[in-house]
Each structure stands twice: as structure tokens, then as C-alpha cells.
Amino acid sequence: xxxxxxxxxxxxxxxxxxxxxxxxxxxxxxxxxxxxxxxxxxxxxxxxxxxxxxxxxxxxxxxxxxxxxxxxxxxxxxxxxxxxxxxxxxxxxxxxxxxxxxxxxxxxxxxxxxxxxxxxxxxxxxxxxxxxxxxxxxxxxxxxxxxxxxxxxxxxxxxxxxxxxxxxxxxxxxxxxxxxxxxxxxxxxxxxxxxxxxxxxxxxxxxxxxxxxxxxxxxxxxxxxxxxxxxxxxxxxxxxxxxxxxxxxxxxxxxxxxxxxxxxxxxxxxxxxxxxxxxxxxxxxxxxxx
Length: 290
Hints:
Strand order of the largest sheet: 8-7-6-9-10-12-11
Structural class: alpha/beta
Helix content: 25-40%
Mean pLDDT: 93
Strand content: 25-35%
Distance between the termini: 54 Å
Order of helices and strands: EEEEEHEHEHHEHEHEHEEHHH
Shape: globular
Radius of gyration: 18 Å
């Protein structure tokens, strides 16, 4: 008997994955956590029925949220990762010796446990002595922080359910306060392709555009994301992701990647026309006082 997992993107579209075995299934205090093993994607983890990452493609997301800001900001010492309980983003950040402290704030302790048990190569990022893991709500953690971080990465899942508070105007305002005068924030911006997701992209860009003097969006191809197309946001008090980008310096580091390159860095900010239009309309709506 065949076993399939379905990740529903819209009421009419779903991604089906043939599963060899279900490895874990339990409900935490926050959400349903499941781990499956598949032929083509390897192991993958889902939260409330939606894929978070798979062994096959997790490197794309982790590299794009870590290396893009690190290739722009010239002096990152202290980093806050909100979400990130799987350790993947921390693992990429730990490749930079100048980083002194990485605070990872993950609300769901079970997600951390499952990541360590079933995805040890990813979770090893949490074992670095520079990493401090806090099991706490991200919004509560960041309230009251002032000028503390050079870089904030919002690695939470999506703007629905348990992490909804991490996509609010209050949250982005708190991130702005928690960053120092040259601070950068990177966050997952979702997929703009389906109508349901496009609406959230618009709202998110409006909020961040209102908070930060520099606000840009970039892209990546991630097969297990809705439509296989994913956006990220780059928000900053000072640095621009293109004009302050130092390709020569980053290449001199000799960091081996599977997805990110300095050429791709530039290309990732060259968005399709329909995405440019979505973002422009959101900005114009802000300027109109709505």
C-alpha cells in the first residue's frame, strides 16, 4: 500500500510526495509536528500539515537568509535568529568567525528536539558555543531590546497560526528598536504566486517599508515551498543590499556553498515584473496614508 503526504497550497492545488515511512507524529503545546522519509526529498518535517523543510532543499533557504546579509553588513558581531529551532540558519552563521553571539529564540521545544533527533547535520548549528538557545515567544523576547543586534533573521514559518505575531507592525517596530544604528533585518517574505499568499506579501511589505529606510525583496527557487518560488525581505537602517554589497570580500572568505553565490546575490534582487508591481503597489498604498 502506497503512502502519500499532501501539502495543500490552495483549495485547488497540492504537492503530493510519496512517503516511505512516517518517523514521528506528535502534537506539542503549540502545533502538530510530523517527520516523514521519502525517496526523492529524503526526510522532511511538517508543522500543522505544512512542509517546513526537507533534507533535499533546506540548504537553499538557510544559505539565502544567512549569506545575503553577511555579504552586505561589514561588521556583524551579534545576531538574533527568531525561530530557527532546527539549527540550519545558525549553522550557516557559525561559518563567520567574527560573529561573537547568536541568540536563537524558538517557541516550540518539541521542534528543537525533533530536529536534533532526525536532522542532526542541520541541528549541529545549535551546538556551537556562540549559540544561545531560548525556548520563548519571539515577540516577547524582543520587546524591550534596544540597539543590541547587528543582524536579526526572522526564521519563523508563516504569518498564520502560532507565529502570526511575528508578522505584525509591532514586531517589525520592535526589530527596528532592537537593531543598532547600522542593523539589518532579513525575513521570509512568502510566495507571491497564489492569490492567498500574494495578499500576505503585500501586507508584509507595507509594514516593513513603513518601518525601515531601506526595504528590498529578493528571491530563491525552493522546491517544497508553495509554487516552488519564495521571497525574502532585506530591511536595514543603513546598508543597501546592492550598493553596499562587497562580492570581492565575501568571495575571499572561501565559504563553500551549494546555492548562494555573489552573482546570484545580485540576480536574486532582479524580480519578475508581477512581483515588482505587487511591491510597488504596496509602497504606494503606504505613501497614500492607508
